[in-house]
Input
Amino acid sequence: MAKLTIDERVLDVDPQLTVIQAAAANGIEIPHFCWHPKLSVAGNCRMCLVEVEKMPKLAIACATQVAEGMVVRTKSDRVIKARNAVMEFLLINHPLDCPICDEAGECKLQDYAYKYSIGYSRFDEDKVHKPKRVELGPRVLLDVERCIMCSRCVRFADEVARQPVLTFTQRGTHVVLTTFPETQLDNRYSMNVVEICPVGALTSRDFRFKSRVWEMSSTDTICAGCSRGCNMNMWVRNNEILRLTPRHNEDVNSYWMCDDGRLKTFPWVNSPRRLSGPLVRKDGQLLETGWDEAIAKAATDLRLFRKGEVAAIGSPFATNEDNYAFQKVMRENLGVKFLDFVEHIVDGDEDDLLIRADKTPNARGARAVGVRPASPSEGLPAILKGISGGSIKALYVLEDNIASDPKIREVLTNLDLLIVHAHERNETTEMADVVFSASTYAEKHGTFVNFQGRVQRIRAAIATLEQDRALDGFAMSRWDKFASQNDKWGKGPRRDARPSWRIVTALGAALGAKAKFQTSEDVFREITERVPEFKGLTFMSVGIRGHMLAARQAAAKPVSVT
Amino acid sequence: MGSNGQIIRKKDLNFWDRLYIPEILKGLVLTFRQMFKPEITVQFPEERFTPPAQFRGRPVLVEENGVERCVACGLCSRVCPALAIEVQASETELAKERFPIKFEINMVRCIFCGFCEEVCPEEAIIMSNEYLLVFNNQQEAVFGKDKLLKSAAEMHDRLEFLRQHR
Output
């Protein structure tokens, strides 16, 4: 350990660190553009200049290694003067188009212009003009004028995404960021450059001009795109998800997230095709009905079958709470033995950064909380065989479109009764007798278990008909806080959906069980009492970083991200 | 009158004050003088008053060359203390890249403070001289782009006022 003094504060730090790392670890902010904790050091923005005692000139904190007894000043007159000069140079050719720039509000250059700049420009010549709206790839758009040449994106493409297609051409004020001829930035992590870009040069084509950042609320939650379970922020305005951005968690996804996770895991939540309430089949037609009627109908219909004739299929897309409550009601109230879930593994579609072949967020959790057959003779193959053979006549399916597989679809035609929890009309609901409209992962609280065995919390960001943003503790934007009855912008589309654990708890009550779960936390509490792997956990202790399952703690391996 | 109903006589009245008549005449002179001055009363609603350029009437969007100046930056919406303004941006092929596909001001919420005009980086939303606003229901009070857009020529006086005094 080395003794380092920053602004009169004496710190004891690892001598392997650079000054900026040591400062960041101790909560001291040194302004920077090109330095990123997970990328190599470029040292080209010169914003992190600091004064180091006994060094003749100012040094850049990102490339200066800590030494024993080093004395660093980040707020001396020389440093402030140099910083002002750097800001002035950066702003010479940077266009003043914050009003139309998507980055405005979360822009490093904008923030530093307030914090570290002199506040006016002495430059009155014409700014250099460069190409705008350049399509760098299918998902990323470049505005070259706004670029401050920090090279973060170039290093990201080289080092993290390992698709070295970005480079700078020309010199001086004419520098242009571009892709090599006949290549484009189309790797599966390309949209991370939008986040790491300190200005609005790289923007998401999907989110372009959709909303200003200060108009949205942001909720800490988990991506449901694959079993990695990347930590992310869900940005919502007017009860509609507008974008997803990665949230730093060194043990899971570091600072990154894949493009599929960002773009494919939310449009279906906003979709107008979502179910608008429970459906019951009458005379061959699925008709909308009330919750009480649908639950009563499901209960009466299920009672018509003997114990061995009912099978249940849980869901790796649903939360641990949903799966636990589901298997509990199935086992205890219906005596179901045939209980399993369908895996969704795309062989070979994985890499060593984030993407996993298992495309469900909770397969491990579903198994852990009891959605698994007691013996192999009661698993999924046995269920399908039983349905084909006629020994299983009723099936209860939780939040999974199992009939999208033509083979399973064929088998399901033999059923006498099919009850489904679904988000929207799909192949499975078309065959169902009772359909419950279930809340999506964006509308409920709960936990997932990722492939490492890490329990992670999802939080509700979209309000359903029965929820209230203020009363139920949702993240609130200014609009959400002040909307009144007459304001259109306070009333985004709300769906009549309920979390699956609540639906099955109500069903259990109709079948004679004592209904006792009031919140998802109640269900989780019972899981921690009954399932040894979850022992001792609470929603609080899972927190925003997640917590390893007890039995697997030793086997956990941190993510390998350079 | 005093607080308990007694009549209080002023002690310092001089002789002429106490005579009473000259004071009456003084008042009548003032009244008669006004009768020969030009009228300033406006016979509303038959007659309409046109406010000067510095008047803050309802906000409007300035239209220039057939398109709104507005780039849908949302600052007016953010600064509005009454949350009257809702803007939804979208992309345009024009050089300004961005335009409001939806721009709505809820005139029931608007308090005519003029912050939107002050914050606008494009001089796109300005206060007009219109003060006659009548609605029959809440929906009618939400002004969309159709009611908000006014040509720059029409808004010349206000724009000139802003140029000189801002």
